[in-house]
Amino acid sequence: MVVNGLPVTQRVAARRHLVDFLREDLGLTGSHLGCEHGVCGACTVLVDGEMVRGCLMLAVQVHGARVDTIEGLSESGALAQLQQAFHERNAAQCGFCTPAMLITAAELVARNPQATREQIREQVSGNYCRCTGYQAIVEAIFAACQARLAEARR
Amino acid sequence: MNPGDTKPTGTNYIGAPLPRAAAKRLLAGRGQYVDDVKLARMAHAAFLRSPFAHARIVRIDVAAARKAPGVAAVLTGADIAGMIEPYSGVLRQGLIHWEGPEG
Known about the structure:
The structure holds two protein chains of two kinds.
Chain A: E1 2-3, E2 6-7, H1 18-25, E3 44-47, E4 50-53, E5 66-68, H2 70-75, H3 80-88, H4 98-111, H5 117-123, H6 135-153
Parallel strand pairs in A: 1-5
Antiparallel strand pairs in A: 1-2, 3-4, 3-5
Chain B: H1 23-27, E1 55-56, H2 63-67, H3 77-81, E2 95-96
Antiparallel strand pairs in B: 1-2
């Protein structure tokens, strides 16, 4: 597999979940475990460019695939616009939900930057935040969408 | 500082929005949370929860658990009640009222 652009080869127990593999075997602790049964969204990572729940996937399932975590997506600058918007609007408090929020938001900004606030809420409806009350997160994503639209118009 | 000012003036931060120093790190996925902490010879805790929704604890037999390999300690409510003042009852000693509380 390729993780954040680097080839990785490792033997893993068949039952090892993807997120535990990333966190414990590769030290990529940016992906978090909140519920371990797929509802809170904190474990969201990209596999072959698609969002998945790391807690519901087995590590062996990504054999031959490309995995991107918050660490790689942040370092590459892919999330820079969203991170700036989150920072300006104080959309992260404790930060636990934030990596997955950013990854989930990025999918929407890329796919439909004209999204309404309702659509933004729908997009992150699978990502729990216990701190912010979501408003700042929605505003930050909206702002990032606006920035993306402004870029496209130039 | 007047209402509506957006930048702190001098050392007066009242009313001004302040950027958080830790925000950039958290946004990059470089925060450290309890589960991220790895210490040498770290012990791990596991909680045994009540399988019954309504019950009275008569006895908790931990003898075999204490002898199991790799076990540093097994603690029941009775064991720690004497160490904590006041004791909130987080590990139950008497009545169980819902399925889940630790004994």
